[in-house]
Amino acid sequence: MKFFAAVLLMIVFGCNASTENGNAVSRQQELTPDSAFFYPANSLLKLASEEVITQPYYIYAITIDGGKRDSVQLTNDQFSALAHKFTDFNIDSVPAKRYYRAASFSDATLHSLTLSYTSIHPAYPVKSMEILMDENGDKVHRIFINRSFQNSDSAVIEKLGWNFEQNNFYINRILSFSDGSEKTIQKKVFWQ
Fold first, then answer.
1. What distance in Å separates the CA atoms of residue 162 and residue 171, rounded to the nearest whole number?
2. What are phi and psi of 89, to 5 degrees?
3. Fewest Cβ atoms closer than 10 Å to its Cβ: which of 31, 162, 163, 181?
4. CB 127: neighbour CB atoms within 10 A?
């Protein structure tokens, strides 16, 4: 973990904030696939998921589908199946990462660092990922993933978010059908 923190510090200092006229100004730096450090988000999400199912957490989900709200307790297997959506495509793998543009953004005012990855390959389901962390790169606060893919009967857009501080994640799905209709399903999973 110290290695990752050291590399993140290099990224932070490489795109440090400066001041103009006494006001903090954030800088953004775009990195090439060869020079970019890809944060091991996939590994972090797998570890977080494993921790949830090995601890005696009460796990439940709230789903809003067609305006109807439902809550249900989840088994460890049900939780794992939902959490797998965050890790089923690994953008930091060697074959995949060359198809992602990496950028880092350091915000001196908020004392935070954002690592952004955007796909340049239209067939890859993960279109973008953002990792929000403290300014030193020691602690990840949230991970956001945007996915899109085609099912046999619909186009699917998924927006996923994992909140490490509040023990929850969400999966929002928008299904667009060939007749022009859409269906939105929101699911939020909690453990406590």
1. 9
2. -135, 115
3. 181
4. 18
Give the bridge partners for 157, in sequence order.
148, 174
Question: What distance in Å separates the CA atoms of residue 40 and residue 163, rounded to the nearest whole number?
Answer: 16
Reading the block at residue 24, the tokens are: 């903090």
- Sequence-ordered list of residues with C-beta below 8 angstroms from that of 115, at least 6 positions apart, any chain: 11, 39, 102, 103, 104, 130, 131, 133
pLDDT in tens, 75-129: 999 999 999 999 999 998 888 888 999 999 998 888 899 999 999 998 899 999 9
d(CA 168, CA 180): 32
The whole-model pTM stands at 0.81
Closest CA to 140 of 17, 45, 50: 45
Distances (CA, A) of 62 to 69, 81, 110, 111, 165: 7, 15, 31, 32, 19
Length of the chain in terms of residues written: 192
- For residues 76 and 129, the answer to whether their CB atoms sit within 8 Å is no
CA angle 182, 148, 186 (to 5 degrees): 55
